[in-house]
Amino acid sequence: MKAVITVLGKDMVGILARVSSTCADANANVLEVTQSILDEYFAMIMLVDISNLNGSLDDLRANLEKNVSDMQIHVMHEDIFNSMHRI
Amino acid sequence: MWNTKDILETIKMIQDENLDIRTTTMGISLLDCADTDIDKACQKVYDKICKKAENLVSTGEEIEAKYGIPIVNKRISVTPIAMLAGVSGGDVTKYAKALDKAADTVGIDFIGGYSALVHKGFSAGDKELIESIPQALSETNLVCSSINVGSTKAGINMDAVKMMGQQIKKTAEITSDRQCIGAAKLVVFCNAPEDNPFMAGAFHGPGEPDCVINVGVSGPGVVRATLAKMDDTADLNEVANEIKKTAFKITRMGQLVGSEASEKLGVPFGIIDLSLAPTPAIGDSVAQVLEEIGLEQTGACGTTAALAMLNDAVKKGGVMASGNVGGLSGAFIPVTEDAGMIDAAGKGSLTIEKLEAMTSVCSVGLDMIVIPGDTTPEVISALIADEAAIGMINSKTTAVRVIPAIGLKDGEQLDFGGLLGYGPVMKLSTLSPAKMINRGGRIPAPIQSLKN
């Protein structure tokens, strides 16, 4: 099972580090990362494997929101993108 | 790897454009709860609902967390209660209280099915249920009531239409200390669908399985945002195409949630109702979609044509995305629930007469319209008859949910709060249709050929 983590907000130092260390703590394996910066607006999309999480997806979201509190974080199961954008 | 644009588009739809799953509605058959002793029947009703829907709310919350999609309401629809009342007799409001208590126990937002299907005539329990509606809706919080008074195959039961004009007025009067809220939970249908997950008209039809999950998706805000990005010179073919694509994506999301809920609850998946259901939130408005297509304000000439195209394109996109599209699928035009409609009604751009024309091409009917408190029951009945006639002749669902604003002066407004919204009192003809309404009887079913 995979989930997509998106992080949106104003660019600053250490976002990627904070997100990936939170993922590591939850035992979520990072598979891919893409990030872009548009007009100082930071958008990162991370695909993580959540098959062996040591907690729930909700816990991971809560920890991300706590550790990266100044950004908008979304953690969503990959199926939603599969169903909406692929026929 | 994922296309970044697709991922960000989904997130934007949810975060900025009010995309949501409006409701997961569990349909529960209560036919096996019928009993000649009304108290025993009520106990069975309460027990069955609590057992079947035990995990409805928690499952909804789990799915919300997994996919990051808000599921705004969790609801239940049940077998029309008149069928149980026909067996038991007695004080029908006891069923309303049992439903309300069960809804409260399982923690849902609304329960629908305080209903009767009387399009051809009354059977045991039907009249008693209709008579009890004002009291039932004033003494409960979560119960919704609907009555089907007409169909294309049966015609219109004008005796029921007459009764419903009176009941709507009484329900508003008896709840006048609470913004006449009772009337907002009461809807009169022609050609009512048996699998609709939306309130106040949801009930679990007698042709449905024992228990089923239906999903209502929404998203006028998403459609509006999509159209806003288009060039003003794009032709209407392109506009319809964009609406279809958006409806497709929204429905796929509903399909995902519905299948997941069905699997987790061990209950068969019924239908997805793809309805553009507006909310009073800014931007989440069907009226603003019509304005984005190119009208100065909803109510202008061209409104009916724009709505017809929108309604049809939504259905086409939805049907492509799911094999189980049903319910009311299309575009709702409830006045008090739609910021753009409220504005147009307040400015006088949108009138009840124009809304009536719009209902011949939208997915339902005259919905959430605040009418003057001194409107006579005969006028309300005649309004119902007009609307039912549009549905009957055009083989579509139509409905009336109007709220007589008891004690309010011209220019004032009712405010229900939440999804039900607020709205100004709209003018309605006061000419008397009393002679026609008092005739009673039935308007015969229409001919299905010689169409013009």
Any descriptors?
heterodimer, A: 87 residues, alpha+beta, Alpha-Beta Plaits, 3 helices, 39% strand, globular, B: 452 residues, alpha/beta, Anaerobic Ribonucleotide-triphosphate Reductase Large Chain, two-stranded antiparallel ribbon
Task: Provide a quick synopsis of the model.
With 87 residues, chain A is of the alpha+beta class. Helix content of chain A is 33%, strand content 39%.
The fraction of residues in strands of chain B falls at 15-25%
Describe the global form of chain B: globular
Helix amount of chain B, in percent?
40-55%
Widest β-sheet, arrangement of strands of chain A: 2-3-1-4
Instruction: Name the CATH class of chain A.
Output: Alpha Beta
Termini Cα gap of chain A: 20 Å
Mean pLDDT of chain A: 90
* Sheet/helix structural class of chain A: alpha+beta
Total number of beta strands of chain A? 4
Mean pLDDT of chain B: 94
The profile of the biggest β sheet of chain A is: 4 strands, antiparallel
Quaternary state of this entry equals heterodimer
Count every helix of chain B, treating DSSP H or I runs of 4 or more residues as helices.
Answer: 16
**Poorly predicted segments of chain B:** none
Report strand % of chain A. 35-45%
Please tell me about this protein's structure:
The complex is a heterodimer of chains A (87) and B (452). Chain A has helices at 15-25, 57-67, 79-85; strands at 2-10, 29-38, 41-49, 72-77. Chain A is an alpha+beta fold. Chain A has one domain (2-85): Alpha-Beta Plaits, CATH 3.30.70.260. Chain A is globular and about 35 Å long. In chain A, strands 2-3-1-4 form a four-stranded antiparallel sheet, sandwiched between helices. In chain A, 33% of the residues lie in helices and 39% in strands. With 452 residues, chain B is of the alpha/beta class. Chain B has two domains: 27-190, Anaerobic Ribonucleotide-triphosphate Reductase Large Chain (Alpha-Beta Barrel); 216-443, Anaerobic Ribonucleotide-triphosphate Reductase Large Chain (Alpha-Beta Barrel), CATH 3.20.70. Chain B has helices at residues 4-15, 38-52, 56-67, 81-88, 93-106, 126-138, 158-174, 181-184, 220-228, 236-265, 286-293, 303-321, 339-346, 352-358, 377-393, 434-439, and strands spanning 21-28, 71-78, 110-117, 143-151, 155-157, 186-190, 211-217, 269-276, 330-331, 366-372, 398-405, 413-415, 422-424, 442-443. The longest helix of chain B is centred in the middle third of the chain and has 30 residues, at 236-265. Chain B starts with a helix and ends in a 9-residue tail after the last strand. Chains A and B meet through strand 1, strand 2, strand 3, helix 2 and strand 4 of A and helix 1, helix 3 and helix 10 of B.
